[in-house]
Specification:
Elements (H helix, E strand, L loop, with lengths): L4 E6 L10 H10 L2 E7 L3 H13 L3 E5 L11 H13 L3 E10 L7 H18 L3 E6 L2 H9 L7 E3 L6 H9 L2 E5 L11 H7 L5 E3 L21 H12 L3
Parallel strand pairs: 1-2, 2-3, 3-4, 4-5, 5-6, 6-7, 7-8
Helix pairs in contact: 2-3, 3-4, 4-5
Bound molecules: nickel (II) ion.
Nickel (II) ion binds next to loops.
Length: 239
């Protein structure tokens, strides 16, 4: 029996896939990727994510405003996210939301406000959250401790160390590994994978970004997910 996969973090509605999406989805299905979650990064983009999910039975959507675009997270934007999540049965999570102190494309206090507002939206809607966190683990974990949704969530493209992973597990988060786990400089990730129980680990492509090692420099797509999953399994000592 060949394994089946769920790509927990993709951006299939991005312009990078506009020209050949049906081929991309076909290759995903042939690779055993049974389900995919396409994730919004602002209001307009979240609408596109929902529209795409409504066209394909194996694609689900998440709506949210990325920390890079946190300045957009005003009242009207949050209401629109709530409307999308409440009206489409394909919207299964709020994301991606969080903090990015690496690129700092929005001022930190704006990022914090947008993250808190969207966490409270997720609590109200009883949806899980998809958390983006770069070089901001202390603040992100503090904010999550102040209001983790009962539905839980995923720490996407995990980039922390073992101590951060432990705190995520304590909060009830799942830990998601993306293409970087296959890179020769994966640093702390092998230790993290050894720590996290298998039922708390998930995988993602974050496509079109972060392709696994053999495809570095190219566009990523869900069909490459088994490469990342195989590396995680290898580090875990499993098939
Ligand atoms: Ni993403």
């Amino acid at each position: 029996m060949s394994p089946i996969f769920f790509d927990t973090h993709a951006h299939l509605h991005f312009p990078e896939f506009a020209a050949d999406l049906s081929d991309v989805l076909q290759r995903a299905r042939e690779a055993g990727v049974r389900f995919m979650l396409t994730i919004g990064t602002d209001v307009e983009d979240s609408r596109a994510a929902v529209a795409l999910a409504e066209e394909h039975p194996d694609v689900y959507a998440a709506v949210g405003i990325h920390p890079h675009d946190a300045a957009q997270a005003g009242e009207a934007a949050l209401e629109e996210l709530e409307r999308l999540a409440a009206t489409s049965p394909k919207v299964v999570a709020i994301g991606e939301i969080g903090l990015d102190y690496y690129r700092n494309l929005s001022p930190r206090e704006i990022q914090v406000g947008a993250f808190q507002e969207q966490l409270s939206l997720a609590r109200r809607l009883r949806r899980p959250v998809l958390v983006h966190c770069r070089e901001a683990h202390a603040d992100a974990l503090d904010i999550l401790r102040g209001g983790m949704p009962v539905a839980g969530g995923i720490m996407h493209c995990f980039s922390g160390d073992v101590a951060v992973a432990r705190q995520c597990l304590d909060l009830g988060l799942l830990i998601s590994l993306a293409g970087p786990v296959t890179y020769p400089n994966a640093r702390k990730l092998p230790e993290v994978i050894k720590l996290v129980p298998p039922e708390r680990l998930v995988v993602e492509t974050d496509c079109p970004f972060l392709p696994p090692q053999p495809y570095r420099g190219k566009r990523n797509e869900p069909a490459y997910l088994p490469i990342t999953a195989a590396r995680v399994a290898e580090l875990k000592g499993q098939s």
